[in-house]
Amino acid sequence: MIRRVWPLVAAAVSLGIDAYVLAGVLPQIADSLATTVGAIGLGVTAFTAAYALAGTTLAKRATRGSTKHGLLFSLGLFNVANLITALSPDLTVFLGSRVLSGAGAGVLTAVATAAAAALVSEQHRGRAMAMVTFGLSTGTVAGVPIGMLIGEQIGWRWTMGLVVAVGVISMAALASRGSEIPAIPDEPGSGASVVVRSPQVLLGVLLAFVLGVTSLGLYTYMLPMAADRGLGPWGFALIWVWGIGGVLGSMLIGRQIDAVGSRKLLPVLAAALLASFAAVAFLPQPVVWLAAALVWGATGWASVPTLQDALTRSRPKATTTIVAFQMAAMYLGSAVGSAVGTALLGAGAPAGDLPFWAFGAQIVAVVLAVLVGALGRRAVQSRDAEAREPEVCASSS
Predict the structure, then answer these.
(1) Same domain for 20 and 139?
(2) Which CATH number covers residue 290?
(3) What is the mean pLDDT of residues 60-84?
(4) Residue 2: what pLDDT?
(5) Which member of 55, 59, 94, 189 lies 3.0 to 4.6 Å from 193 by CB, making a disulfide possible if both were Cys?
């Protein structure tokens, strides 16, 4: 049954590449379009903002009528936008294409995750959702370096061509296998109301934001941090180890979610991520940093499907909405974390001190993870009690 999820994983790979690949070729794009790196960097901001806005407002609407059509439409928009990016003649067209790409990606992430959960039985739900995250992490880890290499050798436009090629392949897979994807259950109410009505979901979205600030935000400064601590020659090794950890974490966590339970795993993952920041902050040895980077990547990426399952296990009909808000919060947190890092460095803080700031923020994440787990346990107990009430009434009558 899990094999039916693979077309969705392929789509997630293209998303993983596109979300980060431009950061490695910004100078080349700026030279090609006769503008500044800062102006091109606005494309990352435009992508993130559109991702958050479209995912939280359009994801539910995209699946009305047919899940397959919603997936193909969002992936088609994503592919066309990236093709426009590759062919952009000037900054205006480039930035506009990044808005469209972010919109397609925001809808596609939420719908693909909800579709993966709907494709399998409840006992495999965590594994199916984790497979989509596995696609995202694999695209980031493997696709981004390959895309950067392509950009260095034959130009950044061919880097975007890689994203389009992967997207077209995944679209073909969805078109041929899309009939197997069932309709996604829909909970009544607006997206915002789903979040606001549930303290667990509200805290979970906040947790996703904090994890974005700490894990992804700090990752942006891996190379300058290593250089400041005298580990400059180890910088790229740390990047690769972090990525390998991310792939392994997202690949292996699914079975653990189904076997152990996401509510128990979530605080453990948050605490392990905290420990990795502590190691990076206080211990400058290369071996320690390599081990910490592995744990950091693994727990950071594994937290994504774990949090998704914790928030949706008792509310499967709201999966699309909840995942949309969670992922939007995570990407916004990443952008905020990067901006805070830039501000701290601009104010004169050494790059090697950034892990201390992430460590402090991650303490908040651990507290939130404990609360989300506890509230999730109550939600499941309440759901089970409501399910038993009709049986009790029927037996008494």
Answers:
(1) yes
(2) 1.20.1250.20
(3) 85
(4) 62
(5) 189
* Centroid of chain to Cα 74: 17
Cβ contact 211:303 at 8 Å: yes
Tokens of residue 125, six digits: 């739900």
Contact (CB, 8 A) for 41 and 52: no
Task: Please report, as a single letter, which amino acid is at residue 169.
Answer: I
Please count the structural domains in the chain. 2
Contacts of residue 7, Cβ cutoff 8 Å, sequence gap at least 6: 170, 173, 174, 177, 178
Closest-CA residue to 148 (of 76, 42, 277, 240)? 240
The answer to whether 328 and 106 have CB atoms below 8 angstroms apart is yes
Contacts of 311 (CB under 8 A, 6+ apart): 200, 201, 204, 322, 326, 372, 376
Single out the residue of 75, 111, 77 nearest to residue 97, CA to CA. Answer: 77
Question: What is the per-residue pLDDT across 133-156, written as a single tens digit (0 to 9) for each?
Answer: 888 888 877 776 777 788 778 888
CA atoms of 57 and 196, how far apart (whole Å): 15
> Is 103:53 a contact under the CB 8 Å cutoff?
yes
Query: Which position has the token pair 């699946």?
Result: 63
**The domain boundary residue, chosen from 184, 217, 252:** 184
CA–CA separation, 8 vs 170, rounded Å?
7
Whether residue 195 is found in the same domain as residue 103: no
Query: Is 101 found in the same domain as 236?
Result: no
Nearest to 109 by CA among 317, 325, 338: 325
Which of the four pLDDT bands, split at 50, 70 and 90, describes residue 115? confident
The tens digit of pLDDT for each residue in 321-357 reads 888 889 889 988 988 888 888 888 888 888 888 899 9
Of 184, 214, 245, which closes a domain? 184
| C-beta separation of 208 from 364 below 8 A | no
Examine the domain organization and report whether 174 and 269 are in the same domain. no
Q: For the chain, first and last CA: distance in Å?
A: 40
Asked if 24 contacts 148 with a C-beta cutoff of 8 angstroms, the reply is yes
